[in-house]
């Protein structure tokens, strides 16, 4: 029977507003306040990590639904073990997986800054998308992180075949220092030896950024994430999705979704099946030709027409970014983000 890492804790049920505390050796983790609650029941907390004889620093704790079966419990443990194998400056590291009140809690790095969901919202409030260099910088950093995940190998030196499967604005965050962080590899698929294979056939989370092969339950590789990243990049540049879906709960007929879908699956599949070329031209026609070429290649319906690797897409994004009149990197991203937050804060609060 797979088990979660041991940590001392109380057995009583935790009221929603009560602080949760874990003690693991010389380290204490204690929640401070909720940060977000998702439709699938997950709650994300800001927490404090304290050393017995040292400083404290912030982390996040994601409380997940209790696995309903042995298979899901096994898969959850494997997903977190998978995340432990990733070490890249643009990937938020996972520290621990613990159990309380029968519910798994994943402890990972706290990123002091907004998700791209929030960035896009702030840009909409300003009625102005982020700058082209900002969008290119974010996409290039995310592509580099995905390349690291896609090319990871196991102890036997065999490829793990990791696919994030949920590259979306809510899973890419901007640190206030200008760093980009790809989050939540908890939905990741892998060819890890001994790993349950069914996740590759399941639909999960927000399908509005899903690749055609994911929607149709076909075999996936890293090119699936590049399709999703292309959709995220286009939304950053235009403040709108390529495929505008109704915000309704409408699971597809005969779908094998694990969780309630946040967007209508059948409508998304209709968009995908018509290949979306006209949609892309209408949305991206005002962008520079080199950038449109990147989007067209990333958003090919057939994986064979896309970039062969995230590294290749990263190279093209960096080439367009270098062609910009002014250099743009972490410092410039930090400045633009700070300005966006300052300008959009009053109407957002209202």
From TrEMBL:
<feature type="domain" description="Protein kinase">
    <location>
        <begin position="29"/>
        <end position="321"/>
    </location>
</feature>
<keyword id="KW-0723">Serine/threonine-protein kinase</keyword>
<dbReference type="Pfam" id="PF00069">
    <property type="entry name" value="Pkinase"/>
</dbReference>
<dbReference type="InterPro" id="IPR000719">
    <property type="entry name" value="Prot_kinase_dom"/>
</dbReference>
<keyword id="KW-0418">Kinase</keyword>
<protein>
    <recommendedName>
        <fullName>non-specific serine/threonine protein kinase</fullName>
        <ecNumber>2.7.11.1</ecNumber>
    </recommendedName>
</protein>
<dbReference type="GO" id="GO:0005524">
    <property type="term" value="F:ATP binding"/>
</dbReference>
<keyword id="KW-0808">Transferase</keyword>
<dbReference type="GO" id="GO:0004674">
    <property type="term" value="F:protein serine/threonine kinase activity"/>
</dbReference>
<dbReference type="InterPro" id="IPR050660">
    <property type="entry name" value="NEK_Ser/Thr_kinase"/>
</dbReference>
<keyword id="KW-0547">Nucleotide-binding</keyword>
<keyword id="KW-0067">ATP-binding</keyword>
<dbReference type="InterPro" id="IPR011009">
    <property type="entry name" value="Kinase-like_dom_sf"/>
</dbReference>
């Amino acid at each position: 029977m797979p088990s979660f890492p041991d940590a001392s804790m109380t057995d009583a049920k935790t009221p929603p507003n009560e602080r949760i505390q874990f003690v693991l050796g010389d380290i204490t983790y204690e929640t401070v306040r909720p940060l977000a609650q998702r439709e699938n029941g997950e709650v994300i907390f800001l927490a404090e990590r304290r050393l017995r004889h040292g400083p404290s620093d912030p982390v996040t704790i994601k409380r997940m639904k209790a696995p309903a079966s042995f298979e899901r419990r096994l898969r959850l443990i494997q997903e977190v073990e998978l995340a432990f194998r990733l070490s890249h400056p643009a990937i938020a590291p996972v520290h621990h997986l613990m159990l309380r009140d029968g519910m798994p809690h994943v402890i990972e790095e706290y990123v002091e800054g907004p998700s791209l969901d929030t960035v896009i919202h702030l840009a909409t409030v300003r009625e102005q998308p982020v700058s082209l260099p900002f969008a290119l910088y974010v996409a290039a950093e995310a592509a580099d992180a995905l390349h690291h995940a896609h090319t990871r190998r196991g102890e036997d030196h065999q490829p793990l075949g990791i696919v994030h499967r949920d590259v979306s604005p809510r899973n890419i965050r901007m640190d206030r220092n200008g760093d980009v962080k790809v989050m939540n590899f908890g939905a990741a698929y892998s060819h890890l030896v001994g790993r349950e294979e069914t996740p590759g056939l399941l639909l999960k989370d927000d399908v509005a950024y899903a690749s055609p092969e994911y929607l149709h339950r076909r075999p996936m590789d890293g090119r699936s994430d590049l399709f999703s990243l292309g959709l995220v990049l286009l939304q950053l540049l235009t403040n709108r999705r390529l495929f505008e879906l109704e915000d309704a709960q409408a699971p597809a007929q005969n779908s094998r979704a694990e969780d309630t879908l946040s967007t209508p699956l059948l409508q998304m599949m209709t968009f995908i099946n018509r290949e979306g070329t006209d949609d892309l031209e209408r949305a991206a026609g005002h962008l520079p030709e080199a950038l449109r070429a990147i989007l067209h290649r990333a958003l090919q319906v057939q994986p064979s027409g896309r970039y062969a690797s995230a590294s290749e897409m990263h190279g093209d994004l960096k080439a367009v970014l270098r062609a910009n009149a002014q250099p743009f990197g972490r410092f410039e991203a930090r400045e633009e983000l700070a300005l966006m937050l300052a300008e959009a804060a009053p109407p957002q609060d209202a």
